[in-house]
Amino acid sequence: MSLLGPVLAAIATAAGAPAPVAEPAAAVRLQSVGNFEQPLHVDAPPGDRSRVFVVEQGGTIRIIKGGQKLDRPFLDVSSRLTAGGEQGLLGLAFAPDYAESRRFYVHYSAAEDGGTRIVEYRASASDPDVADAGSARLVLQQSQPEANHNGGPLRFGPDGLLYIGLGDGGGGGDQHGRRGNGQSLSTKLGKILRIDPRQSGSRPYAVPADNPFVTRAGAAPEIYAYGLRNPWRMAFDPATGDLAIADVGQDEIEELNFARRGKARGANYGWRPFEGRQRYAPGESAPGHVPPVLQKRHSDGWCSITGGVFLRDKALGSGLQGRYVYGDFCVGQVRVVKLRAGRATNDRSLGVRRVENLSGFGTDGQGRVYVTSLSGPVYRITR
C-alpha cells in the first residue's frame, strides 16, 4: 500500500479520484475515538473489553482506555525502524493466549536495512498498559530489495497459528528474480506465510507440518499462499474462519481475494501473470490461478485497496452480520460486501462519511469495528 500522502495524492490526481460527495443516510455512522500520528491499524487482545490498541506508522502503539488515549505508549519501537512511504510499523497481532502469556507480535521495517522484521514482545507483568521493551525476540526476518511493497498484515488464524503477509519485493511489475517473486516458491516475498511463532528448541519459530509446500524441494516451507503483489490487510471471519486478502494492484486493478476456512492453503492468486482478472504478463503461467472475487479499477478512482474486517458486531444489526467492510486510500468510501466462495455480492457503500486517506480497519475485544485515516482520525462504526 502507498502510505505517504504526497505519493498517493499524485496517484489520486492521475486516476481522477472523485471529490467527497454527500452519501445517503444510514443506520450506522462513524464516531471519532481520537486523533493519532499516521494510524494504520486497530486491534485488541482476545476478550479485552476495556482497551483499544492503535498502531502508528512511525513506530508506536497507543492505548485507548475508558475512552481516553493514554499518554504513555504501549510500545515504542521508533528507534528500531525506518518509516515513511510504505515502510514503518505495519502490523500487530496478539497471541490467542495473551491473557496468560502476554505475547504479541509486530511487523516493521528495520532501520538498518529496511528489511522486514517480525518480533515477539511481552506485556509488562507489573503494568499491563506497557510492553516490556527488554522482552524483544526476533522471530522472522526477510530482506526487501525495494522500499515499497512491504505487506504488513499479521493475523492469528482459527488454528492458532500466525499468518504473515509480505509484498513482492517492490519496484513495479515484480521485476526481481527470473520471473518475479510472486510466482516463485523459493522466496517468501509475494506470499502469505504461516508459522507457529513460539520458539521451537534452537529455532525462533516452527513450520507447521501441514503447510502446503513443506515437502517440495526448493520451496520456502513457511509459504501458505502465493501470487500476491502487496497484501494490504487480511482478515479471518471470527465466526467461520474464512479468509479475505486485499491485494494492491499495479496500474489498473485493485483486488479482493476470498477463501473458505482452510481453502487458501496452497492457493495461487495470480500475480504477476494476472492483475485482477486480466492478463498483466502475457505468456506467463500461474498454475491453478484463483481469480479475485471482487476487483476495482483505477479508471473509477481507486488507487490502493484498504483491506478490512468481517462485521460481527451485533449492535450494528442483523443486516450487516458477516459482511466484509473495506475501502480504498484514494476513494475513501467505506464499503460492505457479502463474500462467498468464488464471488462477491451486494457490494455497496456503508453510507457513512468519506474517510480521507483511508489506511486501515480493525476490531476490539468486543468485536466493534474501527476505521483509520492516515491523516490522524480513528473512528468506530456505531449505530
What do these coordinates show?
This protein is mainly beta and 383 residues long. The protein has one domain (5-37, 145-382): Neuraminidase (6 Propeller). The protein is built from 2 helices and 27 strands. Strands 2, 3, 4, 5 and 6 form a 5-stranded antiparallel sheet that branches. The protein has a 4-stranded antiparallel sheet with strand order 1-27-26-25, with no helix packed on it. It has a 4-stranded antiparallel sheet with strand order 7-8-9-10. A hairpin with a 5-residue loop joins strand 25 (358-363) and strand 26. The longest helix is centred in the first third of the chain and has 11 residues, at 5-15. The radius of gyration is 19 Å and the shape is globular.
